[in-house]
Each structure stands twice: as structure tokens, then as C-alpha cells.
Write a structure and sequence with these properties.
The chain has 895 residues and is an alpha/beta fold. It is built from 20 helices and 37 strands. It has four domains: 138 residues, Immunoglobulin-like; 112 residues, Chitobiase/beta-hexosaminidase domain 2-like (Chitobiase, domain 2, 2-Layer Sandwich); 441 residues, TIM Barrel, CATH 3.20.20; 95 residues, Immunoglobulin-like. Helix 4 runs parallel beside helix 5 and helix 6 runs parallel beside helix 8.
């Protein structure tokens, strides 16, 4: 008889066998369940991916702005199924980007949802979405979505599953076009006018013809063709030299070591030999030194008797600007008059700001931009490296900033990145490695351009905030959080969005990690600059911080001990703390104007900063908003002011008041080259001609009396043209928006024109127009071909065009000389080159023309003119009259 121990042991064996059996069953069931789910997931993934792929290929998107009084503030989106299968309800969404959101939350069976910033989606609603049959279409109406230009819409819509990781997103093929061909043309004023009081209309071909004609002058001699215009030019009549490739450059390294880089650049640019001594039988270029000259001053003497050109300066920078003038002279003609040119810049700060955060531009594009800046004697490149949409510079101590903050990906993927933005499609990335940025710095230094980095804080900081959240997750997962510093930058629970629609985009000034973060960034930047350029100045942004964003912060409440939290007090604390950190690193600071300004009180006391100089970019000058005089306020308060006026110097705005033109238009409807050329930096209110709707401004009403001028003109230290990149996604678009406007900017920031000093407005305007004719002549004859030879795709204005019914003659002109015009008739696809006039055959009902550039044969927009039955002018008059009457009625009804 077995013992109790044996019975217990046998029981254990039986129980163990039973447990083992149960465990095996559970394991088999688990494996089976996993296999079934794996196949199910793969099946679902494959099924959902096939739906996503089908929609991407076969869904045609068409957008049309409202075209009547009742629909003017709406947009219709038509989704057409061009394939052979129905598009049914499913786990998919269509994503698109918009800077002008609608109030519509549901339409045609779709939920209209919002992610962040300007990213929206259309999600089919179960039992409401009826599907889009093969060959069928669906119209979606978005209320309170005012679209006044094609550029209000973005390319690269994409479709994706709304289940995490189930399929890959795809760009909808019909929206890939950068020309936005899926957006219908804007054909009447209800579509392009932003407001019932908006006076702007697109130029007609006839209006453009008259404008082109007004700025052409056949009497211009073009004897001295240099941009920017030198301070003083004295020409000796009837004495000239002929320049050829037998000339030499005299190298005087032992005497003028600072001039060696300039002499070598000149020899390379002109293909000349460098020699140690001038030869009696050859023309020569030589550099001389005069220590009484300031750093950017130079003099050029052209001597016919000795066949010599002498460039005098105090250092390499002045010599460099001298050779740029000489190269410009020789590019236009190899015959140069005997002359003495004395030149120096109007302002020490001649800047260009480029936004590489919204849409990234690689180092090669930046280097090309630096080349062009130096060609026109500009010396400051302000790089907007960070914003909500991307962090674009590698910071070795915090690699997550670019690992996560420079990448965009689909919102429903299990990846750490930012959401897609600004028509980038589901994926995009880009940043400068330390090596890339140092290469940019070296390139800039050789061309006497200082690179000023901008780290935009505390607002516009979503990319940094998200990257640091992801970093913290990584540290927690790897259990290294205690070993490495935390950079959590926000505890935002405010529910307040920025003006661009971004949530949680403001760094919290009450967190210690904020200042640890700033300290690390500055330390790494100084190391990046080391040995190339000295980092003297950092731009901290400071603009557009959403009011009230910190008041609910528990950290801020704790810091202020329960006292009433004031947004401006917290922001001011941040600004001065960051400035102190910068000062500790030996850095001067720059800010956008609203970063150091309190409404109703004015600029912060500049004496509270430890820096010797605080630079401010004065930008927010929409005249009707009563902010145009802030530049004067800052100058009179002791700040150094950089004029960056949005109404004249924001090159992200269109060239014309036309819905076909690229560019945002919130500050002004357009900024053409003449407007930039005519900007008067030392007479701020003289630039206030029209408000943003085109209505004439009464200066007495605007200023409530005589308009003030600054009491501290020396504090106006320069100007900066700004290229924000929301609508600029590639190099072609970048250069089209920058040139030729940047030439007008370079002219104004280097050279003070005589007409700026004239007191009588009419006299000043007439003199300005004559000066602009001279400028346009030089641009057309010389500079545009130089730009194209450098691979720069500048904007080509469309031609002007008129038609006389009595003799059936069309007249054509261009804004710039050197461009030819191509014409076609009616539906004829044949294009022919035409001169200034052409006889139009009988039976032709409409004419189409475009301009062509002289070097790269690039094309302008096509301009069309209806000449059917001679009724064009009467039709135009009738339609405009009707539109005016309808708009007037609309105003009366809504008053």
C-alpha cells in the first residue's frame, strides 16, 4: 500500500500532466489565434492598401471658388471617380492642407476634421457616405472658406488608412501638380475679391500694356549700367578703354594681403592672368590701400592714358565690393569710359531672411543665394532655421531635434515625427548637418556675408516641443532618463492655437528645462561656427506668441505663487532670461518686433538688456492696423531697427493682384518690383499709399495729424527682405519669388536716391518714375541675362496686349527689354514669334501671348484677349459695370 508521500507524489504527477496538457492547449490556441490574426491583418492590410491605392490613382479632385454673391464665401470641391470600381465607405481618409479654414464640419457624407496647423481631413461617415460610383462624382461644399487665389490651396493631397500601421499613405495623383491645375481659374470679381470694399482686380492685357509703356524710355543712354547704383560717378567725356583677355590682374600680396582674395576672385571671374608687376604693353587691374576708407568703402579709377583700372579700399571687403562693380560694368560692355567711382553703402545691415523651416531648401540652393547676394553687395543672411513645421539644423548635443523635428509623416503611423504640412504630401524631411552648415558658413565668409541663425522661441516652436517629448519617451524606454538632462519644454493645457492654427506650439518660460535647452543650443551653435565665422549675433524670433497660452500652466501658477498670471509678464521674463544667457555666451541678440513689445505700453526698456545693441526687425505695418509707426517707436527707444516692412519687403507676397500669382496676401494684395524700388526707409509714412484692400490712405487720418519721423535716424541700421516659404516648395519657386525684386531691394538698401529727399510729393513721384525707367532698362539689358546664366529662374512678367478693331492690329510690349513674345490665335496650337505690332487675320476671335526669356527660353504666364466681333471692350465695360452695381447693392444690404 503506497505511503502518503507516494500518494502525494502521484497526485503531483497527475496534476503536472494535466497542467502540461492545459498549457499545451493554450499555447496551440494562442499560436492558432496569432496565425489567424496575422492572416487577417495581412488580408485587411492588403485590402485597405488596395483601396488607398485605388483612390490615389483614380480620384480626380477639382476645386472651385464661389462665383456669385451667395457663394462668394464658399468653396466647392468635386471628387470624381475616374476608375472602374465604386469608392465605398471604409477606413480611409483624405488629407489636405489649407491656411484659410472653413467652418464646415460635415458635407456630402464626410466628416471634416482637423489635425494641427492647417492639416485637415475628409473621413467618410458610416450610414451617411453614399459612396462615389465608377464614373460618378460628388460635390462637397465648404462654407465660410474664402478663397481669393489659387495659392490658397496646396498640392499633394493624400489618402491614408485611419488605422494605425495598416497601410501606407499615397498622394492623390490629380493633386500632384505644382501649378495647381486642379484648382479652377478665377473668372469674376466675386472669386478674387477678399471683401466687398476690395478695389483690386487682375490686370487686363490692355492695362498691362499701358504700365509696360509707362516704364519704357527709348532716350536712355545706359552709359553706366551698375546695380546697385554707386554713390558717385564722374565720367570723363570722349575717353575710353577697351577691355579684352590680354589684361592682367596685378597681385600685390606683400603690400596688400587683405586684397589677395578679391584679386584672385576677379582673375577667376574674368579669366585673367595674375602677375606681380604691371606691364607697359598690357592693360592691368591693380589694388591699392587707403586706411582712411571705412570697411565697405571703395574707389575705382579707370585711366585711359595708362590703360589701367585701380581699385582702392582699406580692406578685403571694400575691394570685394569694388570688383563686383567692375564685373557688372564689364558684363554690359567691354568699352568703359574713363571715370572715377566713389562708393560706400547707405546702411551697414543689408539683409535677406530665408525661411527654411516651413519648406526646406538645401545647402546648394543657399550657396547659390549667397552668391547672388554678394553680387549685389548684400551682407547679412538671416536663416529662419526653426518653426512649427520643422527644425532644420543639427544640434549634436540634442540629436532628436533633427531625428524627429525635421521629419513629417502621416498622422496615423506609429512613428515619431511632425504632421504633414504645406502641401508636402505624407512624407518630407530635411536639415543641415553640422558639416552642411559649416560648408554654408565657409562659402558665406568668402563672399563677406554674415550668417545669422534664428531659433524661433517661445512661439513657433512645435517642432522642438514634439521632438523633446519623443526624446523623453526614448529615455524612459531605455531607462536612461536619470543620466541625461530632460528638455521637456511645455505643459500646455490652454487649448489656445496660434494665428497659423498650431496647438501646443509655445515653449513654457516657467520650466527650468526651457533655459537648459537654450543654453545647450547656444553652446552647440558656437562650436559649429568656430574657426569659420565668429557667431556674434543670435536671432530669437519672439513673434506671434498666442495670448493666454501659459495662464493655465501649473508650473507658472506655482512660480508666481498663485498671483494673477499675466501673459506679457511671463513673456517679458522669458525674453530677458534668454537675453542674459546669450550675453553670458558673448552674443548680441535680434528679435521680431512683437517679441519685445507690449501693447498700449510700447517697447521694453532697452536699458534692461545687458547687450550693447538689441536689433529689432520691424515688420508688422499693415497701415489700417495702426502699427506702421512701430519702427519709429523702437528707434526712438534706443533699439537698432532693421526695416522688414511686410507691405513692401515680404517677398512671399504676389507680384500682381492676380489670383494666378503665387504668394500670400495678408499684408498687401501685391508687392511688385516698383513698390520695392520705391520704398523710402527714412520716411516711413511716405510709404503708406494704399491699405490692404487698395483704398487710398489719407495720412492725416492715419496719423491723426502730422505723421512723425524718428528722432534717432542713426538707429535705423538697415533693411531686410523676407522670404517666408509657406507657398515656396522648390528652388524654382524660391528664385521666381525673389528675383528681380531683390535687385530693387539691393538698390534701395545700398543707394539713397535723390527723389527720396524731395519734399514735394508730385516732384518726388515724377523723379522716382524716371529713375525706375533707368533701373528697368539696366535690368532688362544686363541683369536678367546674368541671372539666367547663373541658373536663376527669375519671374517673367506676362506681355501687355491691345487690339484695335478698325484695322485689326494688335500691339504687344514687354516690361523688360530682351524678352521676345510668342502668339497664337484662337484654338490654334501653333505659336509664332511677334514684334511690337501684328495684323490679326479675319475670323480670329481671341489672341494668346506669352513672354520668353533670352537665355533659358523660359515662359511667362499666358495672357489672352477676346476680340470676337469687336465686342470685347463693350463686354468688358458691361460686365464690370454689372459687377460694380451688384457689389454696391451687397454693401448697402449688409450695412
Amino acid at each position: 500500500m503506497p505511503s502518503t508521500v507516494h500518494k502525494y507524489a502521484a497526485c503531483i504527477v497527475r496534476k503536472s500532466s494535466s497542467s502540461l496538457f492545459i498549457l499545451c492547449c493554450i499555447l496551440l490556441i494562442s499560436i492558432g489565434w496569432t496565425i489567424v490574426n496575422l492572416f487577417k491583418t495581412r488580408h485587411e492590410s492588403g485590402a485597405e492598401q488596395s483601396v488607398v491605392d485605388y483612390i490615389a490613382v483614380n480620384l480626380k479632385v477639382k476645386i472651385k471658388a464661389g462665383d456669385s454673391m451667395t457663394t462668394a464665401r464658399s468653396v466647392q470641391i468635386t471628387l470624381s471617380n475616374t476608375g472602374h470600381k465604386d469608392i465605398l465607405f471604409g477606413k480611409w481618409r483624405i488629407y489636405f492642407y489649407s491656411l484659410t479654414p472653413s467652418t464646415t464640419s460635415k458635407t456630402a457624407g464626410f466628416e471634416v476634421g482637423w489635425v494641427n496647423g492647417g492639416l485637415y481631413f475628409l473621413s467618410p461617415i458610416k450610414n451617411e457616405f453614399q459612396g462615389i460610383s465608377a464614373g460618378g462624382s460628388l460635390d462637397l461644399i465648404f462654407r465660410e472658406w474664402k478663397s481669393s487665389a489659387k495659392i490658397d490651396h496646396f498640392p499633394n493631397w493624400f489618402v491614408a488608412s485611419n488605422t494605425y500601421g495598416i497601410s501606407s499613405p499615397r498622394i492623390i495623383e490629380s493633386t500632384k501638380d505644382e501649378s495647381l491645375s486642379f484648382v479652377s481659374s478665377f473668372e469674376n470679381s466675386f472669386q478674387w475679391k477678399r471683401h466687398e470694399f476690395d478695389t483690386y482686380n487682375p490686370y487686363t492685357p490692355g492695362e498691362r500694356y499701358e504700365m509696360n509703356k509707362a516704364f519704357q524710355d527709348a532716350t536712355l543712354k545706359g552709359e553706366f549700367n551698375v546695380i546697385p547704383t554707386p554713390f558717385s560717378v564722374k565720367i570723363v567725356p570722349n575717353k575710353k578703354i577697351v577691355f579684352d583677355d590680354n589684361w592682367v590682374v596685378v597681385e600685390q600680396a606683400s603690400i596688400n594681403k587683405e586684397h589677395v582674395p578679391a584679386s584672385r576672385i576677379l582673375a577667376m571671374k574674368l579669366g585673367l592672368t595674375e602677375v606681380l608687376q604691371p606691364a607697359t604693353n598690357r592693360g592691368y587691374i591693380m589694388f591699392e590701400s587707403d586706411k582712411t576708407f571705412n570697411k565697405e568703402q571703395y574707389e575705382i579709377k579707370v585711366e585711359a592714358k595708362t590703360t589701367a583700372i585701380i581699385i582702392t579700399s582699406s580692406n578685403g571687403k571694400g575691394a570685394f565690393y569694388g570688383i563686383q562693380t567692375l564685373i557688372s560694368m564689364l558684363d554690359s560692355s567691354n568699352i568703359i569710359p574713363e571715370c572715377i567711382i566713389k562708393d560706400h553703402p547707405r546702411f551697414p545691415y543689408r539683409g535677406l531672411m530665408i525661411d527654411v523651416s516651413r519648406n526646406f531648401h538645401n545647402k546648394e540652393t543657399i550657396k547659390k543665394l549667397i552668391d547672388l547676394m554678394s553680387l549685389y553687395k548684400m551682407n547679412k543672411l538671416h536663416m529662419h532655421l526653426t518653426d512649427d513645421e520643422g527644425w532644420r539644423i543639427e544640434i549634436p548635443s540634442i540629436p532628436e531635434l533633427t531625428k524627429y523635428g525635421s521629419r513629417r509623416c502621416n498622422y496615423f503611423e506609429k512613428d515619431k515625427c511632425l504632421n504633414p504640412s504645406l502641401g508636402s504630401g505624407p512624407y518630407s524631411s530635411g536639415f543641415y548637418t553640422v558639416s552642411d552648415f559649416r560648408e554654408i558658413l565657409r562659402y558665406a565668409k568668402e563672399r563677406y556675408v554674415e550668417v545669422i541663425p534664428e531659433i524661433d522661441v517661445p512661439g513657433h516652436a512645435l517642432s522642438a516641443i514634439k521632438a523633446m517629448q519623443y526624446r523623453e519617451q526614448d529615455l524612459q524606454r531605455l531607462k536612461t532618463a536619470e543620466k541625461l538632462p530632460s528638455y521637456i519644454l511645455s505643459d500646455d493645457v490652454s487649448g489656445i492655437s496660434s494665428v497659423q492654427g498650431w496647438m501646443e506650439n509655445s515653449i513654457n518660460p516657467c520650466l527650468n528645462a526651457t533655459y537648459r535647452f537654450i543654453e545647450t543650443i547656444l553652446s552647440d551653435l558656437q562650436v559649429i561656427y568656430q574657426g569659420i565665422q565668429k557667431l556674434d549675433r543670435i536671432h530669437f524670433g519672439g513673434d506671434e506668441v498666442p495670448t493666454g497660452v501659459w495662464e493655465k500652466s501649473k508650473t507658472c501658477q506655482s512660480l508666481f505663487h498663485g498671483n494673477s498670471l499675466d501673459h506679457s509678464t511671463i513673456k517679458k521674463m522669458f525674453v530677458f532670461t534668454v537675453a542674459d544667457i546669450a550675453h553670458k555666451h558673448g552674443l548680441q541678440i535680434s528679435m521680431w518686433e512683437d517679441g519685445v513689445y507690449k501693447k498700449t505700453q510700447g517697447p521694453y526698456d532697452v536699458k534692461e538688456f545687458k547687450q550693447e545693441e538689441v536689433y529689432v526687425n520691424a515688420w508688422s505695418n499693415m497701415w489700417e492696423a495702426q502699427t506702421g509707426g512701430r519702427a519709429i517707436e523702437f528707434a526712438d527707444s534706443g533699439y537698432k531697427v532693421i526695416l522688414s516692412m511686410a507691405t513692401h519687403l515680404y517677398f512671399d507676397h504676389p507680384y500682381e493682384p492676380d489670383p494666378e500669382e503665387r504668394g500670400l496676401y495678408w499684408a498687401t494684395r501685391y508687392i511688385d518690383t516698383y513698390k520695392v524700388f520705391g520704398f523710402m526707409p527714412m520716411n516711413i509714412y511716405a510709404n503708406a499709399e494704399f491699405d490692404s484692400l487698395g483704398n487710398k490712405i489719407n495720412l492725416n487720418d492715419l496719423c491723426r495729424g502730422p505723421c512723425p519721423n524718428t528722432k534717432a535716424p542713426d538707429n535705423f541700421v538697415g533693411m531686410e527682405a523676407c522670404i517666408w516659404s509657406e507657398t515656396i516648395r522648390n528652388e524654382t519657386q524660391l528664385f521666381e519669388m525673389t528675383f528681380p525684386r531683390l535687385l530693387a531691394f539691393a538698390e534701395r538698401v545700398w543707394h539713397e536716391a535723390e527723389w527720396e529727399k524731395l519734399k514735394a510729393p508730385e516732384e518726388g513721384d515724377n523723379t522716382k518714375r524716371r529713375d525706375f525707367k533707368r533701373f528697368v532698362d539696366i535690368i532688362g539689358k544686363n541683369e536678367l541675362s546674368r541671372l539666367e546664366k547663373a541658373g536663376v529662374q527669375y519671374r517673367i512678367p506676362p506681355p501687355g496686349l491691345t487690339f484695335t478693331e478698325s484695322n485689326r492690329v494688335a500691339k504687344i510690349n514687354n516690361f523688360y527689354s530682351g524678352h521676345k513674345v510668342m502668339m497664337s490665335f484662337g484654338n490654334d496650337s501653333k505659336w509664332r514669334s511677334v514684334g511690337k505690332e501684328i495684323q490679326i487675320p479675319e475670323g480670329v476671335s481671341d489672341i494668346h501671348v506669352y513672354a520668353v526669356s533670352p537665355v533659358l527660353n523660359r515662359k511667362s504666364r499666358i495672357v489672352s484677349l477676346d476680340i470676337s466681333n469687336g465686342a470685347d471692350s463693350m463686354y468688358t465695360y458691361f460686365s464690370c459695370t454689372c459687377t460694380f452695381l451688384i457689389l454696391s447693392l451687397y454693401v448697402i444690404v449688409n450695412s
